[in-house]
Amino acid sequence: MVARHRTSASAAGRVRWKRLAVILLPAGVIAATLVALTAQGAIAANVSVSGQQFLVTATQLNGTGFEQFGSQVSAGSGTQPVIVSGIGSATLSNLCQAVKAGPLTLRLTAGGSTPVSATNLIVDASSLAGSSATFHGITIGQDAGTLTATPGTAGAAGGFGEQAESITIRNLVQHTWLTTAGTFTLPGLHVSFGGSCP
After folding, report:
1. Domain annotation covers residue 198
2. According to a count of CB atoms within 10 Å of the terminal CB, is the N or C end of the chain lower?
3. 91 and 30 co-located in one domain
4. CA separation for the pair 66, 88 (Å, rounded)
5. Pairing of strands 54-75, 95-101
6. Which residues constitute the domain of residue 30?
7. pLDDT 10s digits, 155-189
8. Number of domains present in the structure of the chain
């Protein structure tokens, strides 16, 4: 009777590995597929922007590992088309950001004597302009889903994309919905109300 009791208790606490694998395997495959599609841009990451753009200017942007493709962001009650620019490593001289905050303008400046630096910088913008731009090792018309210049970001498979080994833009003016970065270092940071970006 004692031996039978131990066998019963052992069976009750035993994990049935085959049955557990049958349950977990499909969930793991689905999760991995969603992560891969998000990274490739086939599924948009769940980021809803504020619905208000902000202005970014810099006297010069230098970057290595550049890529660009079209996408869209969720803004307010709808979506907005954006130009997605990814840069693996970037520096910006005389950075200025300005956004309307009610009747006032919130203004941020940095990078006067020492440039602002960023890694894995990704910008979703409605427009981008400069007095000049220089690209090195550029490929235009590449499948956006195969872009590799900036880790963790690419466009939708089959979409139009471009990438370059390096980029320099002088007198950058950009209207931006969203900016993300792995690191963002702002020497000489100053935030205030009033004024505008040059």
Report:
1. no
2. N
3. no
4. 7
5. antiparallel
6. 2-40
7. 999 999 999 999 999 999 999 999 999 999 999 99
8. 2
